Amino acid sequence: GLSTIRSICCIGAGYVGGPTMAVIADRCPDVQVTVVDLSAERIAAWNSADLSRLPVYEPGLDAVVGRARGRNLHFSTAVEEAIAAADLVFISVNTPTKTKGLGAGQASDLKWVEASARTVAKAAQGHTIVVEKSTLPVRTAEVIQQILSASEGSGVSETQPAKSFSVLSNPEFLAEGTAIADLEKPDRVLIGGQDPEAIEALAAIYGHWVAPQKILRTNLWSSELSKLTANAFLAQRISSINSIAAFCEATGANVREVARAIGADSRIGEKFLQAGPGFGGSCFKKDILNLVYLCRHYGLEEVAAYWEQVVTLNHWQQQRIARLVISNLFGTVSGKRIGVLGFAFKADTNDTRESPAIRICRELLEEGAVLQIVDPKVSESQMAKDLGQPAGAGEGDGDGSWQRVPEVLQAASGADALLLLTEWQQFAVIDWPAVAAVMRQPAWLFDARAKADGALARAAGLQVWTVGEG
Ligand code: NAD
Ligand code: UGA
């Protein structure tokens, strides 16, 4: 019947589509799952025999893909073919902030979602459940429904039943770096929709491994808005604690002591209270700006301004850290070597989208610094794209330059400062006497994540600044 899903297609083989479908396929061996993408390069990488070469790095992902790929998990560029075979299609394409036109800089660009909906409208056969997995503005399901409706009823022939569609919203709450754990043991799964049969069909997929009471059902608009709201609340906590970190530095308080004290209140909770260089990642900023845009659209200026401040504070925090490095290095970093520890937007991912390291490094390059960057998962070519200049260029002539180095010791070599920006575990266990010996004195550690052992660094003779420590 309609309510049993046997074949799933996911449009978009990115950070969400890839891991999410891998877990669904792993947990539902009786369902065929095909992940499609326009990027042949990305699909080839998902199909690589060497599981360490998957396009997304997530702890545990290689094992899940290894179990399911070729059995009931497939990666393909044959988009229309996979849609035609599917009972259910996830749309998991990118929804970045618009760069031009109406709403530029705030509204989400829905052109990839719209293109996906048009392809589904064209290629689908019989009844198809279409699921928004991408994070979308409230009421986008209406747009998708309209595009699909235009082709409903067509395709009637002896071999082909008429096309029909049900649209659901099923936002994804996974965080990068813990994607597999989040997918295998979600706090909740959210399904929004109007068609009970479609909702139950999708719920049955998750029911293979998620407890029934964790599968929440809402109307479409609540589901879409819950995703934006969850990210807004999470990001707001980070801006809140970062604002208090600055205040701690000014007053002699310690933000980690404050976080522990307030986090012990069960109404506040202890998670997501880590002060740092500001939040990065592809979604927080984009989703809040989208919320801000929608609030303005509905005439809610005060609500828009309230959420906008979360992003403003985050920019300020990133800029504050770059400036503090410069001012402590006697007001100039021109020609000075600075070791940058970490480039990814958080630990355990190769993703650099909106990484605070980008803004901070660019600011230091602008001032003529020579950066020696170490990150275990970010490639030199990715750094070059993000920094807008190739490795090595400009060295020696007062222009800023950078290079990727393999180890902390090389990052420290000849450097006046180390700047810790990503909380990779390896930075907690640095051999400080060895590092201090290769740095130029007086040497600094600027620890924007409070990850390093500051006491050991001090004992080795470094001056230490730690975020949120007065
Ligand atoms: P991504 O850029 O990594 O992947 C999107 C993929 O979609 C790309 O590979 C692109 O080539 C493909 N694509 C675009 N248009 C297509 C089309 N018409 N046909 C076939 N393929 C197409 O993006 P992502 O990080 O996976 O994010 C996807 C969505 O999920 C976004 O809306 C994002 O806000 C949301 N989200 C992301 C995360 C996260 O941690 N990254 C978490 C939750 C939700
Ligand atoms: C975030 C949310 O946590 C996910 O629930 C959501 O699905 C996802 O966005 C999304 O919609 O894309 P993600 O951005 O992958 O996930 O990672 P987070 O762990 O939330 O970290 C985001 C940023 O905040 C990172 O730069 C991180 O270092 C920073 N952060 C996080 C802090 O500075 N302090 C904290 O206490 C927590």
Report on this model:
It contains 17 helices and 14 strands. With 470 residues, the chain is α/β, with parallel strands linked by helices. The strands form 2 sheets. It has an 8-stranded mixed sheet, sandwiched between helices. It has a 6-stranded parallel sheet with strand order 11-10-9-12-13-14. Strand 9 (337-341), helix 13 and strand 10 (370-374) form a beta-alpha-beta unit. The longest helix is centred in the middle third of the chain and has 32 residues, at 220-251. The mean pLDDT is 96. The site of nicotinamide-adenine-dinucleotide has 27 residues, from helix 5. Uridine-5'-diphosphate-glucuronic acid binds next to helix 9.
